[in-house]
Amino acid sequence: MKPITVKGEKIINVPNFISLYRLLAFPVILYFALTGGEKWYVILLCISLVSDVLDGNIARFFKLQTNFGAALDNLADICTYAMALLGLFVFKWTEIEPHAWILYLFLTLFVLSYIIAFYRFGKIPGLHLYSAVSAGYVQSIFFFILFVFGFYTWMYYLALGWGVIAYVEKILVLLRLDDIRIGVKGLYWVLKSEKSRQ
Asked: What is the fold, at CATH topology level, of the domain defined by 5-197?
């Protein structure tokens, strides 16, 4: 039996199944968030946050990275982090509200990066820059600790501040690239590549 492929890429692999799980978990987590089921919301969100760390690392370690997988992972990331952010408003807003300005800044840059990606390339920006990946790890830890142990102001600012820096870099990279592709490490490497071609 031939392996299932999309544009020549093998798409049946463990990282893609993990990303698919996060997509399928999204409506269930949304249901518990909207109905006030905080216990199950937290359990399922934490599983999705941990799986978010696993899929990318497995793909890189076993060299299973594909453009399809990067797009699937990015879509699953959007759903997972949308649910985590929704939880801030539904379950933790009392603690978050005095510090909401940086959350709004982060969300503005997040949305702007997708507007730029769709305007320039017409697709999801699955770049996986070093800054974005590391910010995702920090934010996953923050959300996990927030919902399991409680709110820590310094961790909140670290997670969102790092996210702001990562999305500024992402926007700058999107403005310089000719097309979205996997393996783009960051703005420094994009500029270095441009210089070497001159």
From this structure: Four Helix Bundle (Hemerythrin (Met), subunit A) (1.20.120)
